[in-house]
Amino acid sequence: MPEKELKPEKAVIVLHSGDMDKFYSALIIGNGALAMGMEVSVYFTFWGLMRLKKGELEKGPLSRMHMLGLGKKMIEGRMKAANVASLEKLMEDFKELGGKIIACEMTMEIMGIKKEELRTDWVDDWGAVGTYIQEARDASITLFI
After folding, report:
1. Could you give the domains of the chain?
2. Model-level pTM greater than 0.70?
3. Do the Cβ atoms of 103 and 44 come closer than 8 Å?
4. Would you state the pLDDT for residue 79?
5. Does the CA dihedral 78-55-40-130 come out positive or negative?
6. Which of 11, 32, 50, 136 is least enclosed by beta carbons within 10 angstroms?
């Protein structure tokens, strides 16, 4: 009987939210999984996809206590004091560690987003729900953020 090929464990994250704190969570979890030897894909859809637009990465609101932007400024200050990496740095690390980014084509169509509006240097694949299902089908961890 032939031996099964051992595949690395895999995590797939659906990033539906563009909120700053949720975006941080997705990248921190993704980078942690990559550092532990897992494969990681993040499927960006709806408001999460909006953060992939050029110049939009850091513009997401804080999901709770936004308070017209004051809450976000306060959290950003506390994160800076605690030496938490920026979203830009976390995204660079994610890509350097081999993380895969998938942009939802259906969201692009619905929201009128063109490929050239996105950070195409980050995007590894363009797809719809079937692309996500294919990624998730053999994942040991799936998250919806």
Report:
1. 10-60+88-144 (3.40.1260.10)
2. yes
3. yes
4. 74
5. positive
6. 32
